[in-house]
């Protein structure tokens, strides 16, 4: 009979009695890896804002606070650029040198002070080595004009280093240079390397002509200021296209609209909200006047009061340089270079 033999074969071929041993050539599933993913290499970016104070000529003074009135018609000024660092990845990140060079001018003031001789004023200042750290920090500045860098300035020349606390951006990384930790680098310079791209002249009935004499578009929005009788009025408008002229009237707007235009332009140029707020803190009173006061809260003499009492022209315009033009004011260099450099340089031009 064939049936018993068939049953035996079926039993021998059955795997019901328990798990079978895997074949030596059968690939086995690997255990999930518990090792952490490698950390991304650290890098950094650089952001800068400052203000060029401009009259009718092409001599520039560059800085950040501008405690003095608008300059004479034969002088232009570049006020306090502040250079912020932003760390990406695990820090600290080592930077061998960071340098600024004034174009056809000189560095009048810088912080942290490097000990560069004050006379003659240098064209280039270099900091280093630097360590960009992940934490935030405040700024410690000279307490009076008797110490450097303020002591190197001439009589009557304002020292912006004394007011640098206003320029701290809450979202910037800390930079350590030796024993000094600072939330930014700062310099104030003069320059003749830039011919400002906009010209503004009076027309009849309170209007002004604004001409873009360059082939480059002006970023963001512009503001016209009119200061008279201790008050400041303003109108926000779009800049003229390259090689064209527009008429700007005197339908004065709200201060809130002008402040919003400044912020949106700065952010559009790549600055962070914290950096935009630092610009506003540094310049708000100079642009828009002192805040309202009561008899219980008297106000000391301020930047805005000095502007009102000065012989400066009643009208001025504010705008931001195209990024490619900022290189004609001052040049920044870093070793190793950052992954990104964003520069927002305002121009305040008196009519």
Q: In short, what is this structure?
A:
This protein has 351 residues and is α+β, with helices and mostly antiparallel strands. It has helices spanning 3-12, 255-268, 273-288, 303-309, 323-326, and strands spanning 43-54, 60-63, 77-88, 93-95, 97-102, 106-111, 124-127, 130-133, 174-177, 180-182, 185-191, 198-202, 208-212, 222-228, 231-237, 244-248, 315-320, 330-335, 340-350.
How would you portray this structure in words?
The longest helix is centred in the C-terminal third of the chain and has 16 residues. The N terminus is likely disordered. This protein starts with a helix and ends with a strand. The chain has 5 helices and 19 strands. It has 351 residues and is α+β, with helices and mostly antiparallel strands. Helices cover 15% and strands 33% of the residues. Strands 1, 2, 3, 6, 11, 14, 15, 17 and 19 form a 9-stranded mixed beta sheet that branches. The chain has a 4-stranded antiparallel beta sheet with strand order 4-8-9-10, with no helix packed on it. It has a 3-stranded antiparallel beta sheet with strand order 7-5-18, with no helix packed on it.
């Amino acid at each position: 009979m064939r049936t018993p033999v068939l049953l035996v074969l079926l039993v021998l071929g059955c795997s019901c009695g328990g798990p079978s041993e895997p074949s030596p050539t059968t690939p086995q599933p690997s255990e999930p890896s518990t090792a952490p993913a490698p950390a991304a290499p650290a890098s950094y970016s650089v952001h800068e804002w400052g203000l060029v104070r401009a009259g009718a000529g092409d001599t520039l003074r560059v800085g950040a606070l501008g405690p003095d009135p608008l300059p004479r018609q034969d002088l232009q000024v570049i006020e306090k650029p502040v250079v912020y660092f932003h760390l990406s990845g695990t820090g600290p990140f080592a930077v061998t040198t960071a340098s600024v060079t004034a174009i056809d001018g000189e560095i009048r003031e810088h912080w942290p002070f490097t000990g560069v001789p004050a006379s003659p004023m240098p064209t280039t200042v270099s900091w280093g080595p630097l360590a960009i750290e992940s934490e935030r920090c405040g700024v410690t500045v000279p307490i009076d004009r008797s110490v450097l860098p303020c002591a190197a300035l001439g009589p009557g020349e304002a020292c912006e280093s004394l007011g640098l606390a206003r320029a701290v951006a809450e979202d910037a990384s800390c930079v350590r240079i030796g024993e000094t930790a600072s939330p930014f680098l700062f310099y104030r310079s003069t320059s003749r390397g830039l011919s400002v791209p906009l010209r503004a002249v009076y027309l009849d009935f309170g209007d002004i002509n604004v001409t873009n004499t360059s082939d480059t578009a002006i970023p963001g929005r512009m503001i016209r200021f009119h200061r008279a009788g201790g008050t400041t009025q303003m109108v926000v408008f779009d800049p003229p296209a390259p090689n064209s002229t527009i008429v700007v009237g005197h339908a004065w707007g709200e201060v809130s609209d002008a402040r919003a235009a400044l912020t949106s332009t700065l952010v559009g140029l790549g600055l962070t909200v914290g950096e935009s707020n630092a610009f506003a803190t540094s310049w708000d009173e100079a642009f828009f006047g002192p805040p309202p006061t009561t008899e219980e809260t008297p106000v000391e003499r301020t930047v805005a009061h000095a502007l009102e009492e000065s012989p400066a022209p009643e009208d001025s315009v504010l705008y931001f340089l195209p990024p490619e033009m900022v290189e004609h004011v001052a040049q920044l260099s870093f070793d190793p270079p950052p992954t990104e450099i964003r520069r927002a340089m305002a121009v305040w031009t008196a009519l």
